[in-house]
């Protein structure tokens, strides 16, 4: 094994050890985080299904805002409830709430997002994002 001779080599080796240790600590939890090119956030995939959604009392509507319902996020190796809140509306877009999707016995978290034409297909994957006669 080569001994690091420069400061940069030392820090790169230390970074590699820290990353490898962190990744190996997540494996027993059944967590897989896969970075994707189209997203700034990594995909979160876990073995544990989320609990049933909680019932929330929705406050009165606010002009210029959209209600983002509460949902579970994966934090610290468990599902954590995040309460709903009003978010500033984006004219011409529909808000899609965060959701958990089951795929092959695993649960994948999809973050909340804005959709331009309201069809539920993310605009970056939609061939006709503004077609009103889509369906």
Task: Describe the protein.
- The chain is α+β, with helices and mostly antiparallel strands and 135 residues long.
- The chain has a domain at 50-125.
- It is built from one helix and ten strands; from the N terminus they run H-E-E-E-E-E-E-E-E-E-E.
- The protein has one helix at 7-26; strands spanning 32-34, 43-46, 65-68, 71-75, 78-82, 85-88, 94-96, 99-103, 106-110, 113-115.
- The strands form four sheets. Strands 1-2-9-8 form a four-stranded antiparallel beta sheet, with no helix packed on it. A two-stranded antiparallel sheet has the order 3-6. A two-stranded antiparallel sheet has the order 4-5.
- Strand 1 and strand 2 form a beta hairpin.
- The protein is extended, with a radius of gyration of 20 Å.
Q: Bin the helical content.
A: 10-25%
The string of secondary-structure elements, in order, is: HEEEEEEEEEE
Shape: extended
Radius of gyration, taken over Cα atoms and rounded to an integer in Å: 20 Å
Q: Report the β-strand fraction as a percent range.
A: 25-35%
Low-pLDDT windows of residues: 34-39
Number of helices, where a helix is a run of at least 4 consecutive DSSP H or I residues? 1
Number of strands: 10
The chain-level mean pLDDT equals 77
Tell me about the biggest sheet? 4 strands, antiparallel
Task: Please identify the structural class as seen in this structure.
Answer: alpha+beta
* Separation of the first and last Cα atoms: 62 Å
Strand order of the largest sheet: 1-2-9-8
InterPro entries: YXWGXW_rpt
Pfam families: WXXGXW (PF12779)
Biased composition (Basic and acidic residues): 111-128
Region (Disordered): 111-135
